[in-house]
Amino acid sequence: MNGTICMAEDSYRIQTETEINSEMDLVRAAQKNAREFAPLYQRYYRKILAFVYHRIESKDEAFDITAQVFYKTLENLSKYEDRGLPFSAWLFRIASNELNARFKKETSVRMVSIDDEGLEELKMNVDEHSSKESDRQLYAALAMLDPDEVELIDMRFFEKRPFREIAEILGIRESACKLRVYRIAEKLKHILTKQGHEVHK
Amino acid sequence: MKFTNNKNKQPIPEKEITENMNFDKFISSYKPPVKGLFSGGAKLYALVGTVLTGIAVVVVMLAGPSVPNAAQKPFVFSPMRSMDKPLTDLVIDNSKDSTIVFSTGSLITIPAGSFEDESGTALSGKVEIHYREFHDAVDILFSGIPMNYDSAGTEYQFESAGMFEITATKDGKPVRLKSGKELKINMISRNPDPDKFNFYTLDTVGRKWDYVSENTAQNGTCIRAYEDRVAGENDRRHPQRIAEEALLNAKPVAPSMADPAKQNFRIDFDADEFPELAVFEGIKFEPVKEEKDYDPAMAKKTWEEVEVKRGKNGSQYVVTFSSGKEKHSFTVVPVVDEKDYAAAMNDFSIRQAKYEAMLSERRRTSSAANDSMYALNSHFKNLASGADLDQRFDAFISGDYKNTTRDLLVYRTFSIRRLGVHNSDLPLPFFVNESGLITGDFNAEFTVENENAMLKSVFLIRRSVNSLFSVSSQNFSRFPFNKKNIDLMVGITDENQIVYIQDADLKATKAEGKNIRFNMKKVPGEIAKAEDLKKFLNL
Hints:
The complex is a heterodimer of chains A (201) and B (539).
Chain A: H1 8-11, H2 17-32, H3 38-53, H4 59-75, H5 87-105, E1 111-114, H6 116-125, H7 132-143, H8 147-158, H9 163-170, H10 174-194
Helix pairs in contact in A: 3-4, 3-5, 4-5, 5-9, 6-8, 8-10, 9-10
Chain B: E1 2-5, H1 14-20, H2 23-29, E2 45-51, E3 54-60, E4 88-93, E5 98-101, E6 107-110, E7 115-116, E8 126-134, H3 137-143, E9 148-151, E10 154-170, E11 173-174, E12 176-177, E13 183-189, E14 197-203, E15 208-215, E16 222-224, E17 226-229, H4 239-250, E18 256-257, H5 275-278, E19 284-287, H6 297-300, E20 305-310, E21 317-323, E22 326-336, H7 338-365, E23 374-376, H8 378-381, H9 386-397, E24 410-416, E25 420-428, E26 443-448, E27 451-452, E28 455-462, E29 467-472, E30 488-493, E31 498-502, H10 503-508, E32 511-512, E33 515-522, H11 530-536
Parallel strand pairs in B: 18-22, 26-33
Antiparallel strand pairs in B: 2-3, 4-8, 5-6, 6-13, 7-12, 8-10, 9-10, 10-11, 10-25, 13-24, 14-15, 14-25, 16-24, 17-23, 19-22, 20-21, 21-22, 26-27, 28-29, 28-30, 30-31, 31-33, 32-33
């Protein structure tokens, strides 16, 4: 394996009910004995590390946060219930909460790792023509969004997560997820227009 | 927040990933939490005390003002009546369908025959409607409406997207909604979230909130107040551009005194196009001193076309003489002869003062942020005129700390079958951590500007959400405080003084074991209205 973290798009696919059920067997085993947590840990370690490192500058910090995520998962595993969703959705949520807690305490800085392709797609959604100046203005507009709005844009455009996965992570309906992304794009358009930037249709 | 390009981000070497991923290392460093008496999702807070005959365990719900004789105290009780928002009185004819447009732009639709008296007799003629809305923590705080919600034994606090109270009377006597009749309230809301809120109704008899249904865009009960752009903001047809142009054209121009050494000339211009010049008797034009190429003979010649345009700086104009291919343009200023100058300046002073007043009024009622590019949602056009709603929305969002703009407003559509208090809310576990435990269990004491004080109640507020948690004095010995979750605390003393502690002061408050002391500040005495308090506390 090469020295890169695999992107969400490479690793996500919809789990079947059989797969979710078989994963629940692993969860139940781990609930009885922490040492039985190993298969789940091995299965999701890299994905959580990728999720965290995408949002944090330092790799040492990313390792530290990832470890914390799995400690918290193990601590609260007794409360995990089968709701027909993948176990990974719960893991990502714990990771998200852990990151948000650090950002709020200002012990870590939120990094938005822009992907060129994702940026172009975002620009299309806000009717932006391409230029270095418009990139700067878009970053400034992104910085004016609420943290949870940035998170949605990041997951959708720069991590390229499907709406279904984002919805599972955030615990909302897929349709609501799409609507929120649309609303945030509208908000970005509005911010850019207020900044005096001409929006091209 | 920082931005970086993925290309510039160094991938983590595989060797390091493998080292850190080691499960044996992970599990050997994992320390499971020590289980206490009340861990594992306890939802009730337990207090243990010792009595002569043994140990008694008392379980108390932390549900706002929890008093032994709670039945005697009204469920809704304003902590300070003078700050409580008053009801607005409106009148309808019960024999006709009515739509009321409230001051905030909310729409109340009342079908004919909706009301009956308390004996069940149908009513005819006038019925008085009494209505008020609550859109922020100050409104909610002084209403005394409890915002705690119990769902299957777990206590939550409400984050509100807006709340209203509606009652009705006839000749001062309470009336009720007839069975089967439904009022529709399209309540305006600053919170545009289309998915997370639900409708609740306050049951003052059962002393609880009842869940009604979801309040979402998907089920059609959360609708944007505006949709569809009209002209783009840079388009000259855009209302903002048209208004700006009209304002610019109306700006008075101060005439200069004509320089007798220079040539000047008159032009017949359209008074409608240049009203700021038309008011001056005997106005002429004189080239500015920078114009070296102006030949006085040009003014005496007959030209096919003479065009006047406004210059860039507002007090200058550009005159263009043209005949065939010959064309000359000059920058000029309006001048009057010395004999007319005093009268012209006097007139200018008067019009300048009027213009400044008009500009102030425009700034007060409108701003670039509020002038909308959007058309009112066609859904509501048959209920109220767009221009009327625009003004009400502007008043509603004027000065709110989130800088809400019109296009973010939504209507939350309630269909109600009983009068009273109705809310669009999201239950939040304000002080409950992932394990379900209330975090922070303190014996709280309060001082006001370093002097001991008796507080009647305290409200813990998180500004980013419309949510507040009330703690009455009976529960100060079991005070739930988590400085991560709140950024403002407001209290009311026994002398009805409003006190507060916020932001950095709140974060700096440290507990000594179970004891915690909050040093509050007094709200200045000149703040006597809720609106002033909102601005003061940045709510």
